[in-house]
Write a structure and sequence with these properties.
The protein is an all-alpha fold and 128 residues long. It has 5 helices and no strands.
Length: 128
């Protein structure tokens, strides 16, 4: 298939010059497509999305609030499902959920953040 596309002489043989000419034609067409993409409506939308993107501290705070909201929803589901049982079991369940929240947010998250920051530095140190 490549020979048929690049064979300018139509002799079934592919010369280096024909291959280079075909490659130049394909590279020029690809560059033209990329230039059209950069100036088209998608490029304008991408620039607008980049300008409207919230700053990193806001995204980090929103992620923490989302995690807390998930914990709160699960705790509410647990409370609603255990209301049919004794009050003492509901209190124990809520204490368990509170400990889980504290452990996840105060212990696991800082460790994961430290590992995410340290691992690339350790790998760079080991490679260099």
């Amino acid at each position: 298939a490549l020979v048929r596309m690049a064979d300018a002489r139509a002799d079934g043989q592919l010369a280096l010059g024909e291959l280079l000419a075909w490659y130049d034609e394909m590279a020029t067409a690809a560059a033209a497509r990329e230039a059209r993409r950069r100036q088209g409506p998608r490029a304008r939308m991408a620039r607008a999305a980049w300008l409207l993107e919230p700053p990193a501290p806001f995204r980090l705070a929103a992620a923490w609030w989302a995690v807390l909201a998930v914990f709160a929803v699960f705790a509410a589901i647990a409370v609603l499902s255990t209301r049919s049982t004794a009050t003492r079991e509901t209190e124990l369940l809520l204490c368990g959920w509170a400990l889980t929240c504290v452990q996840a947010l105060a212990v696991q998250e800082p460790i994961l953040i430290a590992l995410a920051a340290a691992v690339p530095k350790v790998v760079d140190w080991m490679v260099s």
